[in-house]
Amino acid sequence: MTNLTSLSIRLPHADGSIIDHKLHEPAHFEKHPEQFTSRKVLAAAHVVADVRGEYQPGILAPIDWESTIEFRKYLFSYGIGIAEGMDTSERGPDGLDWNQAKTLIRYGNEAAREAGAAIVSGAGTDQLDTDNPTLEQVIDAYVEQIEYVESCGSAAVIRASHALVAAAKSEEDYLRVYREILAKATKPVVVHWLGTVFDPTLLGYWGHTDLREAMRVVLTMAEENHEKIQGIKFSLLDAEFEVEFRELVPEGVDVFTGDDYGYTELLLGNDKAHSHGLLGVLDPIAPIASQAFAALDRGDRETFRTVMDSTIPLAVKLFEAPAARYKTGTVFMAWLSGFQDHYRQVTGREGLRSVQHLTGLFVGADKLGLLPDPELAARRMQLVLASAGIE
């Protein structure tokens, strides 16, 4: 193996200059296949596209199932569970359709059972093919997916529905839909409150554009159906609002943070409550996060804070606006780390981040010791730069 004391790579700087970056030794992270006891910890994991055949993003989204499931097994080895079939898996418009999501959910559940790992799976309405759905069609679509998810063995994450945005006319419509679909669930679900910072087309979800009015509806929904709800995933990237929200949810309903760069203090919590983790950022930082949660299980809050805080600069870069493009970085970092042979996305959107952004992710991952083979990562980074005309 190359002596890393002499391994460096020339990288473009934001001011147009070229700088030498000296690579770090990869860190050693202890495996932790057992589930954590202090917090529920779930990663929204990415999928690996199969680029060997005819590939038409937006029309065809072939998946490399073997590499996709192997990555999940890697996450399981660090005690990180899976939130399967979520937005990180590029599910939705131009990405995985419902039939592919079904296969992903089935394979993911099989792998989780084999590993004894935690898993929940996304249930939505993305099989609907009409622009003007009725509430009844939305309900039926949700129920179909919930039943399929449960048949695979996991509880459902109720994904935010674009069809419901189109069909609902008031907060009462939202409350009715959630009431009826939760009545059909046989396992306590996680309800996903996904904000416009991740998906601007969800403006007005819960019947309101004002977040406090929306929160009132979410809390009403949770009160009405609390026996059917294990938790609510809060994805608004507003830490203060999340703290306020989790103090208002019904007893027995957990809050899962979706704040992918303010997660340390939210997971630590205060003397009243804490958040659990259901995060896309856990995909690339799993080995480090595993050490932190193991420390928290031992009651070592300061080590947890120090270790998780070390990942925040990388997370901030990964989720910089527009936050929804973080999926590009997630796949890119998996490629740099040798988990897959390319960084093509199912949706073909790997070009939506700048070379500077990708360079920042490379440097951030290297500083954390997250690149198992720095020589391979450097060689791949050089290919990216060369393809962009940077020698």
Based on the model shown, name its key terms.
single chain, 391 residues, alpha/beta, TIM Barrel, eight-stranded parallel β-barrel, two-stranded antiparallel sheet, 14 helices, 42% helix, globular
The CATH homologous superfamily is called Aldolase class I
**CATH class, anyone?**
Alpha Beta
Give the biggest beta sheet: 8 strands, parallel, barrel
Going by helix content, strand content and strand pairing, the class is alpha/beta
If you average the pLDDT, what whole number results?
95
- What is the number of helices? 14
Calculate the terminal CA-CA distance, rounded to whole Å: 24 Å
Number of domains: 1
Strand content: 5-15%
Order of helices and strands: EEEHEHEHEHHEHEHEHEHHHHHH
Which strand order does the major sheet show? 3-4-5-6-7-8-9-10
CATH architecture: Alpha-Beta Barrel
Question: How many beta-strand segments?
Answer: 10
Q: Into which percent range does the helicity of residues fall?
A: 40-55%
Q: Please tell me what the overall shape is.
A: globular
